Structure formats: C-alpha cells, structure tokens
Amino acid sequence: MNLTDAAVVVTGGGSGMGAATAKGLAARGARVAVLDLDGDAASRTAKEINGLGLAVDVSDDASVQQAFEALVQNLGIPRVVVSCAGIAPASRVVGREGPHPLDLFQRVINVNLVGTFNVLRVAATQMTALEPVSESGQRGVIINTASVAAFEGQIGQAAYASSKGGVVALTLPAARELARFGIRVMTIAPGLIGTPMLLNMPDDVQASLATQVPFPQRFGAPEEFTDLVLHIVDNEMLNGDVIRLDGAIRLAPK
After folding, report:
1. Of 68, 105, 160, 219, which residue is the catalytic one?
2. The whole model's pTM is what?
3. Which fold has domain 7-245?
C-alpha cells in the first residue's frame, strides 16, 4: 500500500513500539495521528514526525470518537490503524493479601481488549467511506497488538493474558466481517521487546530474561515491530491471522 500522504493512526504512540511505529510510518510518507493516554508523550512523538498528537483513553467511547473526529478533520480518514495502547500490571489470582482485585482485572480488560475493539470499530466505520486502493478492493488495514502471554501466560498474568487472548480471538471474526469492505485485520503477538518497561529492570534481570530467547538471544527492538507492521501493510494476503514476533521463546510458568 502506498502510504504517501495517507492518514494513519497509532495508539499508544507516546513511547515504545507505538512511538517507533509512528516514526516508521511517517518515514514512508504517511500523515500520522499519535494517540496516547499521556497527551504530552503523544505530542512529543507527533512533533518529531510533524504529526498530530492527541490525548485519548482508548477504553472510553467518547474519547475515541472525539479523537477520530479530530484526526479525520486534520489528516483525513485513516488507511492504517495500529493499536499499541496497553497496560500490564501483575497480580496473582490468590495473593498474600487475598484474591486478585476484581477492579484491576476489569481495568486491564477494559484497556487492552475493550480499548482495542473500541478503536477497531470506530476506525473500520470510517474506512468504509474510503476509495479502494488496489485491484482487490482494499480500503485499509487494522493491526492490533497481542502478546505471547496470550498463549503462555505466566503466573501473575491472569488479567493480562486474558486481555491479550481476547485480542487474538477478535482477529479472525473481525477480518471475516470486514472483508466485504476491503478492510484487513491482523494481530502481532510480541515476545520480549526492549521497551521502557523491560529496559528499566535491573541489568541482571534483563540478562536473565534475554537468555530465555532461543535466537536471537536478546530483546527484540521496537523497530523490528515496526518492520513487521510495514510488511503487513504492504502484503495484502496477510489477513485474519496472528504473527508471533518472539525469537521462538515460549514463556515458562514464571
């Protein structure tokens, strides 16, 4: 897909994989809307790429609707949407202080799963008004972010793994339904990526985690996530599936 002057959206674009993806899409000529709960972080990324930064709570209906109204007015209807927004708090089902806090479980589901669906439904509705850009009738692509925890959730990841498992399960039915509009839906399930959450851990912890990756024995780079996003955008046959980006890691129980 030719991204020159195309409007694109990246949620969670204030840092990590989202920021790298926003920059990668801009380098291809796209006009990028950077959405993040942290409006200042969104603005910083947007400033680097001459994009549009917006403070957005992806789990909130009105917040997402307002953001899309603003970005469509400023950049146009998006051809590409990449959802990177998410949270990953840890808590055991039965902990030292009692059962897993239900409000924490609900918050993780609301941000990671409901938030992903919220962005997808609003973006897809907008995309249906676009003109096709290929002989097949492609109008756009939506790329969601899951995690290898969706398949091998560790102890303490009940909420996170559940939310990312939901994103995985959402992929195929969404792709099947949106196929008639020429809108593709894909999901990336990253493993250990060198984002601030991991890189702020002690060096010995980072080294221990990196040795769990069969090859290459290191953390993935946010730019490698971006490379996969760009390949999905370009490869029209990628649809309705989940791609692991993990160096063959399979998470241990803890």
Report:
1. 160
2. 0.96
3. Rossmann fold (3.40.50)
